[in-house]
Amino acid sequence: MRTINIGIIGLGTVGSGVIQIIQKHHDDFLNHQGVDIQITRVASRRDNVAREYGLMDVFSFDGMDVVNDPAIDIVVELVGGTGIAKDIILAALRAGKQVVTANKALMASMGAEVYEAAREGQTAIFYEAAVGGGIPIIGPLKNYLDANEISSIMGIVNGTTNYMLTRMSQNHLSYEDALAQAQKKGYAEADPTADVEGYDAAAKIAILASIAYNSRVTLDDVPTEGISALSATDIAYADEMGYCIKLLAIANRSEEGIDIRVHPTMLPKSHPLCAVNGVFNAIYVVGDFVGETMFYGQGAGSGPAASAVVGNIIEVARQLAADMPILEHCTCTDEVSLRPMDRLRTRYYLRFPVYDRPGVFAQIAEAFAAHNVSLYSVVQRGTVSSDVDEQENTTDVVVVTHHALEADMQAALAEIAQTETTAGVPALIRVV
Amino acid sequence: MRTINIGIIGLGTVGSGVIQIIQKHHDDFLNHQGVDIQITRVASRRDNVAREYGLMDVFSFDGMDVVNDPAIDIVVELVGGTGIAKDIILAALRAGKQVVTANKALMASMGAEVYEAAREGQTAIFYEAAVGGGIPIIGPLKNYLDANEISSIMGIVNGTTNYMLTRMSQNHLSYEDALAQAQKKGYAEADPTADVEGYDAAAKIAILASIAYNSRVTLDDVPTEGISALSATDIAYADEMGYCIKLLAIANRSEEGIDIRVHPTMLPKSHPLCAVNGVFNAIYVVGDFVGETMFYGQGAGSGPAASAVVGNIIEVARQLAADMPILEHCTCTDEVSLRPMDRLRTRYYLRFPVYDRPGVFAQIAEAFAAHNVSLYSVVQRGTVSSDVDEQENTTDVVVVTHHALEADMQAALAEIAQTETTAGVPALIRVV
Asked: Which of A77, B144, B203, B367 could share a disulfide with A101, CB 3.0–4.6 Å?
């Protein structure tokens, strides 16, 4: 039996997990999958992990030593980012090596270049861990839901923000307190921008949309709104109205093109995504024959991400061991266009902090009417709005609209912002 | 490009769905997957479906005409059951044809014979639709969670009973009314035995356990208890106590062997399986590195099941089109033994309808104590039990135990049944 030699570049959290799995389950993979996977080289900026796992004799500080070793069949890139990781991946692919990576940033921004390099090297790249951590989602989309035309993907794909929203909802924490808790637990970075502003989720939905809609969608294509402007007030109102609020990464197929976006979203509590709490992730996928499906699990962490990476390694190793060409899926593109955000039609929840004066409802209602936004419900909350200075009595006007065009909504909001009744920036949450 | 010729045997609900998908998406499969899938033969006892889809020129009443046609690459068996379907599958495999099927009964009872035939014919069999309908679960277990040692599978794998339990829980229906509703909606058969007594779920967990634990588990190995003895009273009590009740198909890896069973189960409401309602299915899988995962979707119906069947067809077709040998997973077995049900250690919910006399608690408590069953809580419900004749005042004693051995529990129950205080058969629900 041919040994499959892998080289791991990047020995951080995920890299350590990959080593642990292979050291623990090598014989299982041999007996059950018929593959003899050997860690033949490792590389990292520091040698502590290699030392811990007894891999100093195959350790190198330079990732290119792994790429350039002719013995290596599969390069496992776990450095991340679009710097040195890009050089490693492109070089490995051009050299005809199979590549397994967890690199969402690279796949979401430079997928075209990566696939071109794979074509040159007549090889393939696998990146299940880039989205949803341990949750099998890229593979199922490519291999098990491929009988369907996918119409919609909605994902909770960022554990940090889902943890924060769960705490805000269940424990009535403020955004700031929820962030502090997440940081204390190690779920949020010291600089939480990529998570709380939705960029991490945007990269992931760009990858999923590219696969599901056979197109090339990049991070820059995704209109993104994070949770940093979300207040506990809106979560409480949503709860009363029978909704949960989740940061969703959405990609729908529409007649006008791919509708892609990341923003806080209100979902009826009966929706399965509302039951996804804490650091868990879930990706909800609708296909024309399969109907609704959902894939749930841990979206981050050493074990889950390493599980996905090793799954890919075995997938490639089995084909190499059978001397088969690696079966790559279509890396072609249908070049589906993107639908601009202002063509979105959805329902909206809005909360206007207003001065408590006569005629407030009327001014808001007139602005919506003038821009074809039809109201489903309007409630003036008896509480004093928390968002404004209390020089004058203020209150919240909470509006839920029927389906309206995003462009119309923005125009109405611009008009309302000019009125004297508004006492602060309105909260806007789109409703599914 | 080589055309892949498929022959479909059995044109019922699923067969019609398969035809619809291929007729609608043929060009997508060609453009994206590089496979030209042709429905080259169909067979069924009746010709109405073939007529409806314009397939009369390739129609036959005899499934063996499909198997014996040398042009056919993939035999799609959708007759079901262990009669003629078995002959078709064994003949097709021995003749070296690839087989795709949705046949849970055959795979759960005669898997060994089927795999032996596949070995003889040097070919393979795929059966994603046999468990969970449209939900990708067999493929992900084999291909994407294979980096893990699986420790636990808990599935809601029968839509009929989940629909009934949802109605009993949300609308406070009796078992009989829930069954009548399910039958009216077409979710339950006129003879609902296979669903309500748990046999359908038992077949499915036998299949999943065989894959997850690399063993041969058959339907007959699965201790099975359905929902027909379940009362609305217990569902209401469970709800008050913060639990949902689901019919779970369970397969755990234990030190004493595979712990496999089907029975109604109480789960804390925060468990993701509690949010799976109506006819939806979900399979919850725990692995040593990936942690908790869950796969959710429609477990039955034409579209979902056909989605899974066509997913398998594409999987095989891609390999055939590339002139590759079909990569079959290990059909070996570790011959893991089964742990007998009486070695189960779990928590129990029990409801005893008793005569309202002094000393009732004491008698029950003594019997449990004598058999090493430790009580977590005991509550006498103020209501008159609905389960007994009202010749004398009766009431419910509701007990929740700590972890106890099934053998001890059964011995305690046998003893309690002899006492004069019990006024009917106690309800027993295992708690996760």
From this structure: A77
Tokens 């994603």 found at: B128
Closest residue, chain B, to A31 (C-alpha): B330
Contact A311, A197 (CB under 8 A): no
SS3 content of chain B, % helix, strand, coil (to 5): 40, 25, 35
End-to-end CA distance of chain B: 53
Per the DSSP assignment, residues forming a β-bridge with A431 are A266, A347
pLDDT digits (tens, 9 = 90+) for A259-278: 999 999 999 999 999 999 99
Q: What is the pTM of this model?
A: 0.96
Name the residue in chain A with its Cα closest to that of B328: A33
CA B237 to CA B247: how far, in whole Å?
A: 17
Pick from B50, B140, B425, B324: nearest CA to A319: B324
Contact residues on chain B for A24, CB-CB shorter than 8 A = 288
Query: What is the ipTM, given to two decimal places?
Result: 0.95
CA dihedral A41, A45, A49, A50 (to 10 degrees): 30
Give me A161's structure tokens: 């923000």
Tokens of A191: 């600089």
pLDDT digits (tens, 9 = 90+) for A194-211: 999 999 999 999 999 999
The amino acid at B37 = I
Q: Which chain B residues touch A314 with a CB distance below 8 Å?
A: 146-147
Distance, in Å, from the CA atom of B260 to the CA atom of A29, rounded to the nearest integer, reads 24
* Of the candidates A78, A104, A239, the residue with the CA atom closest to the CA atom of residue A158: A104
